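Q: I have 196 residues here and want to know how they pack in 3D. Can you give me a structure?
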Amino acid sequence: MGITLKDVQRAVKKLERAKKNVTVRAVRKALGDTGGLNTINKYLRIINGNDTDSLYNKTVTLKQYKALEQRVDLLEKMLQETMTTIEALKVNKTDVKPITDVNDLEQFSTLVKNVVNNMEGDHGPKVFIYHAWIESKPLLKRMTLTNFKQSLLKAHRKRLLTLAREDMPSRHSAKNINQSRITYLNSEYHYVRQGS
């Protein structure tokens, strides 16, 4: 396996702590004489924020390194959010698009049913409401769990989807039961039924 940007970042920190110049050859030596010079140069250009100049004999300042480290952290966070959205879209084989109007119960119900129907059931053909929210969340325009539960209850009352209760809560973790609970009048719901 080749070297990574993180490996080069660690080597740069090591060189800076030792108060040595950060050059491609110095980084390679700090890596235990592994990694190609071109690869190390590429990563140093990324760290330095300079994609045009060769850094074989230039140093990377601590200020430049810190600024890049912040950029890398931000990009990693953005990538993680993007991957979460992609995974949510992969779950649904029917090309579900993000919801455009959170007050449109039919659109909301269709999205939730498509996501739930492509999940592994938590108890037979039922998915905990909390798990359905987690999987649907990237497609719901920042809908909170409370709002998600309110919309589920409205959709259930209009028979657009079906909610179900857990009759034997001791079979499942109290956390799943509590996070999923919707109470309405004398009824309690914990699941969205698949195929509804």
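Q: Anything worth noting?
A: Residues 52-57 have pLDDT under 50 and may be disordered. The first helix runs from residue 5 to 17.
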